[in-house]
């Protein structure tokens, strides 16, 4: 293998046992046709990685494979060194689904949602004062203390995302997995949201993001995986901007609007 030309060069030579995520040759299809094909991906602790690709390119499916909600047809998926589908250390992962829409049905307060983050540690209903301190600290970290007693159904999209991130923080997650977290969130809140993710990443939390806004990816993520069924690019964000992967994966009309040199 020639490391200079290998698109996975950023991950080559890593100790897979220490990896947060390790996919090797993963292929998956809902019917006979694969929607994710031969994807290999290793993510190390503390990385800030974005997965980009056109609509229907398999991004959410790949997330499902990463967090063990889906099983590969072939290849292997590991989380923190364990098979993803058998992974039972759920509190290590904070998964924020697209639009966090599940929250819309929940008639409970923000603090109660965040409290759930402690359940894997302490069991239902048995929070100590130390656990409550962790809950309140998580709320403060995401700037949601003032909304603690508000019903989750009465929040804006951006506030709801913050509440779900606070739940992951209360669970002391090592990995945050976010599927298009800023869909339906206003521009100002989007900036604040990315500031929050950067602060959490600076604390050592691994961030894995599916993001349709390529400008946001270029500005915030350190590493990009460009997917269209297969991996078209995997490497540092600045190399992605200079590569032709975007055009190849999205079609020739695709280009960066926010990263064009003036
Ligand atoms: N549950 C399902 N059953 C059958 N086909 C599915 C299912 N979920 C997704 N697909 C198909 O798999 C392909 C990949 O879908 P996926 O949602 O992973 O793409 P995506 O890149 O996340 O798309 P988007 O950017 O539009 O959210 C699409 O062709 C989609 O129609």
Automatic annotation (TrEMBL):
Organism superkingdom: Archaea
Domain ABC transporter per the UniProt entry, residue ranges: 21-254
GO function terms (MF aspect): ABC-type vitamin B12 transporter activity; ATP binding; ATP hydrolysis activity
Record keyword Glycoprotein present: no
Entry keywords, A to Z: ATP-binding, Nucleotide-binding, Transport
Position of the signal peptide: none
EC number(s) from the headed UniProt entry: 7.6.2.8
Enzyme class: translocase
Keyword Acetylation attributed: no
InterPro entries per record: AAA+_ATPase, ABC_transporter-like_ATP-bd, ABC_transporter-like_CS, Metal_Ion_Import_ABC, P-loop_NTPase
CDD domains: ABC_Metallic_Cations
Alphabetical list of SMART domains matching this protein: AAA
Catalyzed reactions per annotation: an R-cob(III)alamin(out) + ATP + H2O = an R-cob(III)alamin(in) + ADP + phosphate + H(+)
Assembly: The complex is composed of two ATP-binding proteins (BtuD), two transmembrane proteins (BtuC) and a solute-binding protein (BtuF).
Family indicated by similarity: Belongs to the ABC transporter superfamily.
General function of this protein: Required for corrinoid utilization. Probably part of the ABC transporter complex BtuCDF involved in cobalamin (vitamin B12) import. Probably responsible for energy coupling to the transport system.
Protein name: Cobalamin import ATP-binding protein BtuD
Organism in which the protein naturally occurs: Haloplanus rubicundus
């Amino acid at each position: 293998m020639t490391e200079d030309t290998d698109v996975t060069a950023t991950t080559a030579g890593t100790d897979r046992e220490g990896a947060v995520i390790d996919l090797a040759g993963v292929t998956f299809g809902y019917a006979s046709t694969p929607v994710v094909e031969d994807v290999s991906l290793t993510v190390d602790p503390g990385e800030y990685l974005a997965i980009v690709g056109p609509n229907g390119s398999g991004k959410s499916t790949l997330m499902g494979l990463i967090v063990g909600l889906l099983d590969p047809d072939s290849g292997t998926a590991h989380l923190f060194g364990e098979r993803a589908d058998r992974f039972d250390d759920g509190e290590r992962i904070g998964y924020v689904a697209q639009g966090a829409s599940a929250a819309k049905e929940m008639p409970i307060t923000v603090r109660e949602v965040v409290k759930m983050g402690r359940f894997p540690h302490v069991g239902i209903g048995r929070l100590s004062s130390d656990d409550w301190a962790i809950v309140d600290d998580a709320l403060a970290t995401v700037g949601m203390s003032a909304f603690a007693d508000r019903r989750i159904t009465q929040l804006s999209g951006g506030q709801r995302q913050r509440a779900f991130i606070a739940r992951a923080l209360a669970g002391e997650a090592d990995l945050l997995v976010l599927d298009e977290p800023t869909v339906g969130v206003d521009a100002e809140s989007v900036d604040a949201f990315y500031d929050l993710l950067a602060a959490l990443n600076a604390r050592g939390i691994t961030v894995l993001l599916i993001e349709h806004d390529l400008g946001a990816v270029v500005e915030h993520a350190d590493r990009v995986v460009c997917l269209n069924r297969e991996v078209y690019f995997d490497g540092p964000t600045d190399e992605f901007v200079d590569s032709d992967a975007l055009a190849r994966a999205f079609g020739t009309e695709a280009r960066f609007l926010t990263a064009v040199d003036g």
